[in-house]
Structure prediction request, 328 residues.
Amino acid sequence: MTGLSDSFQRPINYLRISVTDRCNLRCIYCMPAEGVRLMSHRDILTYEEIYTLARVAAELGINKVRLTGGEPLVRSGLTELIQMLAQIEAIDDISLTTNGTLLSRYAAELKQAGLQRVNISLDTLKPNKFKFITRHSLNLGDVLEGIKVARSVGLNPVKLNMVVMSGINDDELLDFAAKTIDEEWHVRFIEFMPVGGVSTTASYFVSVSDIRKRLELLGELEPCLPSVGNGPAKYFRFPHARGTVGFITPVSEHFCFHCNRLRLTADGRLRPCLLAEDEIDLKQPLRSRISSAGLKQLIEAAVANKPLRHWLAEGYVPKHRPFSQVGG
Ligand code: SAM
Ligand code: SF4
Prediction:
C-alpha cells in the first residue's frame, strides 16, 4: 500500500461517510425551516455498497472513517454497518458524528460493534433554546443522557461540537467552558459557516478570536494536544481543568493545507471538499458492478480533483447541497 495523496501532496487517509440525508432535527444553522428535498430510498447507498467502497478505499490508504448524516442514528441497522466496517483490517479508527438524541438507546451496541468514539452536536444547555435551535420538540435531556451513556459504555473521547451563533447561543460560551473545568467535557467551538439554504443568516458569525477573548475571563487557556486524531481543531485547557476546549476556524483561518479527507454523500457521490461542489458519482458504477480496480481509479480521480482550499472567507458559498446532505 502506497497511500493516497492529492495533487498538492496532502496525504488523504480519512473518509467521512454520510449514511442518510434524513434527520430528526432541523437545526437553524444546517437546514432551511422547511427542510430539504429528501433523496429517494433507492438513491441512497446500501450498507453493502458503502462497505465495498470503504474496503477499496482502505486498500488505497484510507484508515479512518467517520459516519455522519443527516442524522446517522435515524438510519436503521447502523450497528450492522459498523460491524462490517470494523472487519476491514486497514481501518483502525471508526467514529460517529451525531446530534445525540438517539444515542442513549444505541451507544452500547455501537461500541460493541466496533465504534471507537463519538462527536455530539450540542449548541445550548438551555431546554427552550434547544427547541428553538433545532426547531423540534425533542428534548435536550435526551442529548445529555446520550453523552452520559456514550461515556459509560467506553466511547472515548466524547467530543461536543457547538456551532457558535451571535445573538443565539454566544451568551452560553462561559457556561460551556466552565463545564470543561468541572467535568471531563471536551467542547469544540465551531465558527458558523454560511452555507446551503441558510446563507441569509450570515450575521450569526462569531470569529474564534472573539470567542477566545470571551473565554479568557475564566482563566488563561494553555495549549494541549488532542487525545485522539489530528483534525482541524486546536486544543486548549484551563488550568487544572478536567476537560479541554477546542477551536475550529473554517472561516477565519482555514485549515485546508492540512486537509486529509474525502466525503461520501448518502447518494454515493465522492466529494473531495466540503465547500466545493465537485463530486464524482460512485453509485452508478457500483450498481453496474464496476471492478475494484475501476473503483480505485474513480477514488484516485476524486483525490486528484481536491482543490487547494475553499473560498468561504472570500464569499464563495456552495449552494447545491446543505450540510445535512454532505455530513458537515
Ligand atoms: N446530525 C449530526 C450532527 O448534528 O452532529 C451529523 C451531521 S451534521 C451536518 C455534522 C456537523 O455539521 C455538526 O457538528 C454541525 O455542528 C455541523 N454544521 C452544520 N451546519 C453548520 C454550519 N452552518 N456551520 C458550521 N457547522 C455546521
Ligand atoms: Fe440534523 Fe445534524 Fe443538521 Fe442538526 S446539524 S439539522 S442534527 S444534520
In short: The chain is about 30% helix and 20% strand. The CA atoms of residues 77 and 210 lie 42 Å apart.
